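Intended use. Records like the one below are meant for learning the mapping from a protein sequence to its folded structure. Do not use them to infer anything beyond what is encoded.
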Amino acid sequence: MKRRIALALAVVMMLMLGLAGCGGAEQEEAPPAETGGAAGGGDTGDWPNEGTIRLICGFSAGGSSDLMCRIFADALGRELGQTVVVENVPGSGGHVSWSTMINDTEPDGYTLCVINSPGICVCKEQTENPRDYNHTDFDLLGNHVTDYGTICWKTDETRWTDLASLIEYAKEHELLYGTSQMTIGGDDYAFAEMMNAAFGTKFSAVITEGSKDNEVLMLNGSCDILIGNIGDTLTGQQSGSFVIGAVAAAERQDLIPDVPTVAEVTGQEIVSFSARGYATAPGTDPAILAKLREATEAAILNPDTIEQMNAMGCVTEFVTAEDDSYLNYMNEVRELYLGIFGLEMVPD
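Structure written out for the chain above:
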């Protein structure tokens, strides 16, 4: 993972120079916190015991984040012996759900959320509507997948036939695509802006509530292309609804082996991705947090979960929250995307 991030950082920084110019033995539980936390620092040995855990997804139903949450919720529920329900709270590229977690959720271990990087990592640095929080303000549970960007068009498209001819056409014509976040935190937006910077294309964003809406807008002709992730677009290609023209990755992806990378077609390497994982409200009792992290890892790495994620187009890349590994990973993502747009880091 770090190799990929480092490679991506080097590539994108070079590009943006142009943009600037333009199981086993039973373990003893950790002692409960003395203050704060869901249980008020009391005994957490019976957690969870209230029957239902909420998993908030800040994106609309049917998209890759939503589908991932539903697969994970089922596996997590089996690990914890409780029902885990997915609640869609779309809006502002995930920020409606994240602000809810930060400001309005009890740190009792009964409410989780999906967090999407780079969106959650760079929200303090957004040039429009910057937030007063980022990934460092959550209690992190672990990364689930890293999902690389794709650029797609309808199967009956006649204005171009491949990525090379699409680029030539888009140099002279504005082409619309849907995205839920027209900021530096939106990986679809970042992908489009990297293309515009590298090739002089005229890709322009239309704001939506999520990836499924983006697909609908392209298929009904309201938008010209679909910029998404493999997890958003694999089933559409398999059904023949549209064509995945290229993937924004350093190398071809096993789930779409016949799809070239942008670099193969253009000679210019462009890497864009959405990394998705889970978090809970800050201040969660350490004993509850330890149980959540253990169950999260087991749910993500369950072979059935991995198989279902592969089927929807997402390759599992688990990063543990222990030893700050997940925190450090997202710090790397933050540096990468701030570098793309040439922005300075806001202190945490």
